[in-house]
Design goal:
Layout: H1 2-18, H2 23-26, E1 29-37, E2 43-51, H3 58-74, H4 76-86, E3 94-99, H5 101-119
Parallel strand pairs: 2-3
Antiparallel strand pairs: 1-2
Length: about 120
């Protein structure tokens, strides 16, 4: 299953980055971080990391991420057809897109660490 998930992740990432033309996807830097296919290969959860401009507020980041998920959900039939043509598999799972919160959480932790190190007096 790990090999199938990796193959799906690479193929979906290529389709999303090169073939989807949706203005909602241009607002964010998208990465396919993980794919978890079901054992019967009917469905796959595709985790997406969406980062908007570095100076964006957390609310703007959340809106950009949700807009990207909405655009990808709308494009799911196209993504499914495209990966079905590219991969020679008996069954290609239907992609369901979710926002990967692990990246945003690690960025928030890094910001806190940086703030603490800046507030600490120099020896």
């Amino acid at each position: 299953m790990n090999r199938v998930n990796d193959l799906l992740r690479d193929t979906i990432a290529e389709v999303v980055s090169r073939e989807l033309k949706d203005p909602r996807l241009e607002l964010a830097l998208l990465s396919v971080t993980e794919v978890r296919a079901s054992r019967d290969l009917r469905n796959a959860t595709v985790f997406i990391s969406a980062m908007s401009a570095p100076d964006a507020t957390p609310e703007e980041q959340a809106r950009a991420g949700q807009a990207a998920i909405d655009a990808l959900t709308h494009a799911a039939p196209f993504v499914h057809r495209t990966i079905r043509r590219r991969l020679r598999m008996k069954r290609v799972p239907w992609p369901a897109f979710e926002l990967d919160s692990r990246i945003a959480g690690s960025a928030a932790i890094q910001e806190r660490i940086n703030a603490l190190s800046e507030s600490r007096p120099s020896p």
